[in-house]
Design the sequence.
C-alpha cells in the first residue's frame, strides 16, 4: 500500500492530527522560550519535536497536493504572505501613531 492509495478523507484526518501535534509542539517551544511557566522539557528536545511535526505536516500536505482543494495552493500562499506583510506594516504604522491595537 502506498500513501497515494489512501483515500482523501484518511489523508485529511492525518493532516488534522499532524496539525494538532504541530500546534502543541509550537506552544511547548514558545513556553520554554518565554520562561514564565517551567516545563521539564528542554529547548533542544522541544525544537527537535517541532521539526518532526513540521515534517509530518509537510509530508501530509504533499500527499494531498493532487486533490482538488490544493491545486491552487501556490496562489493562496502568495496572497496570504502578502496580507501578513501588509498587516505587519499597518501595525508598525499604528504604533508610530501611538495606538496599541494590532490590526485584526
Ligand atoms: Mg506527528
Sequence:
Amino acid at each position: 500500500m502506498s500513501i497515494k492509495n489512501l483515500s482523501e478523507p484518511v489523508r485529511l484526518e492525518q493532516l488534522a492530527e499532524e496539525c494538532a501535534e504541530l500546534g502543541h509542539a509550537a506552544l511547548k517551544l514558545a513556553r520554554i522560550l518565554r520562561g514564565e511557566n517551567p516545563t521539564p522539557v528542554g529547548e533542544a528536545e522541544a525544537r527537535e519535536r517541532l521539526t518532526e511535526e513540521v515534517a509530518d505536516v509537510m509530508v501530509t500536505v504533499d500527499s494531498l497536493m493532487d486533490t482538488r482543494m490544493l491545486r491552487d495552493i501556490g496562489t493562496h500562499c502568495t496572497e496570504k504572505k502578502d496580507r501578513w506583510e501588509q498587516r505587519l506594516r499597518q501595525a508598525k504604522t499604528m504604533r508610530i501613531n501611538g495606538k496599541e491595537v494590532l490590526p485584526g
Summary: The chain has two domains: 1-64, 67-104. The chain has three helices and no strands. Residues 1-64 form one domain.
